[in-house]
């Protein structure tokens, strides 16, 4: 098959690839192929690029078990096409209807999940770095409209990502359906047609068959291109604002040494200075950190509820957010996974590390929040870790008199529910460090200090509470 760079679809595919750096010379690509016009044109175009770019292609077809003989014919068609063009072929079959009912999800969601799991499995087995799927410019237009009708922020209105996670690529995302169909006609591809695409039972089909033609006829003949261009601008805006939000989040987040039992927090002093748009992003940054980097069920109503909680200055209040919980205590907004407030067993989870250092080394470490410098000759006996106990007193650094530990924690605005969980580093007679907050005046390094010890507290193993 000859490579024709004058072909409109192929030229746009190459332009899109250059813009988004989707695939490089010599890469292995798994191609999802249903047998319809879009995926067949994509596979055919990549086959035409295979010799000059040394691409290694693998095709995957997923039989959803929903369309009987028509689906069987689709699978056979794709398999034969791959055989004719010397492309390795994988077939996955599933009863998506039964799986969706079992999982309590829609056919569309379950089908998508199974498809991408299948693609990932083959990518790992074949050592392919990319997975190519065939959404096109019109699919992008439909997606933007669907999200607009449902309600979405910048991220949602940015539509389908051309590249997701550096691995899922969509080389036809800037190619219209008309151009794809012309490509199929030119090369005599004769793709399969899914009759369910003509049914208006599904929201996307209604938008494609009814809403978009109406808008094009009455408002903007170039609606698809306009919406896709707008989505591209919004993705750029989203990326920029997300970087700004992450920088702001780092400025207001509670230091790691004050994080309790998997909870993370932000200072409301800094938070209150930002505009509402940035506040919402900071709340999502906080929720994302608590959730391990992925937000699945944290929605607009959750964000607004936390925003209201953070703005309420009366007392301490808590909020249930489905899989997360939020609480404002004093001037800190805390968030944690629901039900993850178990106590820390300090003796099992932490260990004290002591390093004798020189004054020069101490000077270099001033301001380091990971540890404290103590006069080793003023430490009495062995060091150990415990929780607070009734009657505890503590002489905070810089003070001439001791005070009740309870009063110290109140003054530091430590949440009451967390006070008994804070590790206390003690010698045989006193508290010398309330971890994450203040060391004791009684072991401070002075001009006459001869031996300086650098104390740090480390988890013996990383445990998420």
From TrEMBL:
GO biological process: tRNA modification
UniProtKB keywords: ATP-binding, Cytoplasm, Ligase, Nucleotide-binding, tRNA processing
Segments forming domain Lysidine-tRNA(Ile) synthetase C-terminal: 383-454
Binding site for ATP: 34-39
Catalytic activity: cytidine(34) in tRNA(Ile2) + L-lysine + ATP = lysidine(34) in tRNA(Ile2) + AMP + diphosphate + H(+)
Pfam annotation, one family: TilS_C
Domain comment (free text): The N-terminal region contains the highly conserved SGGXDS motif, predicted to be a P-loop motif involved in ATP binding.
PANTHER family found in the cross-reference section: TRNA(ILE)-LYSIDINE SYNTHASE-RELATED
Role according to the record: Ligates lysine onto the cytidine present at position 34 of the AUA codon-specific tRNA(Ile) that contains the anticodon CAU, in an ATP-dependent manner. Cytidine is converted to lysidine, thus changing the amino acid specificity of the tRNA from methionine to isoleucine.
Name under which the protein is recorded: tRNA(Ile)-lysidine synthase
UniProt organism field: Acidaminobacter hydrogenoformans DSM 2784
């Amino acid at each position: 098959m000859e490579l024709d760079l004058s072909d409109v679809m192929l030229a746009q595919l190459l332009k899109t690839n250059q813009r988004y750096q989707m695939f490089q010379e010599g890469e292995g690509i798994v191609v999802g192929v249903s047998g319809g016009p879009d995926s067949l044109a994509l596979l055919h175009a990549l086959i035409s690029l295979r010799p000059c770019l040394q691409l290694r292609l693998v095709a995957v077809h997923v039989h959803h078990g929903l369309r009987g003989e028509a689906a069987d014919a689709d699978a056979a068609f794709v398999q034969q096409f791959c055989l004719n063009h010397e492309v390795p072929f994988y077939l996955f079959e599933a009863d998506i209807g039964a799986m969706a009912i079992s999982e309590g999800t829609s056919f569309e969601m379950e089908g998508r999940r199974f498809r991408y799991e299948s693609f990932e499995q083959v990518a790992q087995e074949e050592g392919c770095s990319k997975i190519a799927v065939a959404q096109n410019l019109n699919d992008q237009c439909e997606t933007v409209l669907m999200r607009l009708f449902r309600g979405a922020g910048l991220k949602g209105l940015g539509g389908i990502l051309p590249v997701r996670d550096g691995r899922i690529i969509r080389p036809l995302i800037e190619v219209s359906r008309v151009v794809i169909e012309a490509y199929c006609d030119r090369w005599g591809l004769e793709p399969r047609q899914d009759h369910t695409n003509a049914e208006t039972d599904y929201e996307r089909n209604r938008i494609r068959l009814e809403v978009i033609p109406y808008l094009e006829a009455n408002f903007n003949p170039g609606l698809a291109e306009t919406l896709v261009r707008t989505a591209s601008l919004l993705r750029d805006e989203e990326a920029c604002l997300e970087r700004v939000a992450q920088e702001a989040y780092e400025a207001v987040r509670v230091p790691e040494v004050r994080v309790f039992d998997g909870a993370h927090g932000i200072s409301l002093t800094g938070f209150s200075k930002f505009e509402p748009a940035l506040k919402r992003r900071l709340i999502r940054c906080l929720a994302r950190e608590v959730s391990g980097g992925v937000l699945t069920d944290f929605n607009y109503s959750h964000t607004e509820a936390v925003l209201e909680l953070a703005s309420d200055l009366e007392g301490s209040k808590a909020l249930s957010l489905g899989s997360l919980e939020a609480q404002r205590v004093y001037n800190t907004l805390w968030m944690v996974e629901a039900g993850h407030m178990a106590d820390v067993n300090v003796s099992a989870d932490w260990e004290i590390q002591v390093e004798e250092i020189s004054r020069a080394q101490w000077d270099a470490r001033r301001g380091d929040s990971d540890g404290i410098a103590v006069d080793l000759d003023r430490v009495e006996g062995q060091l150990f870790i415990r929780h607070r106990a009734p009657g505890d007193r503590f002489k905070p650094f810089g003070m001439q008199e001791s005070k009740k530990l309870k009063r110290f924690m109140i003054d530091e605005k430590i949440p009451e529910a967390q006070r008994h969980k804070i590790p206390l580093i003690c010698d045989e007679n006193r508290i010398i460090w309330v971890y994450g907050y203040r060391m004791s005046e009684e072991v401070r390094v002075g001009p006459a200090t001869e031996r300086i010890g650098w104390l740090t507290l480390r988890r013996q193993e990383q445990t998420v509470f």
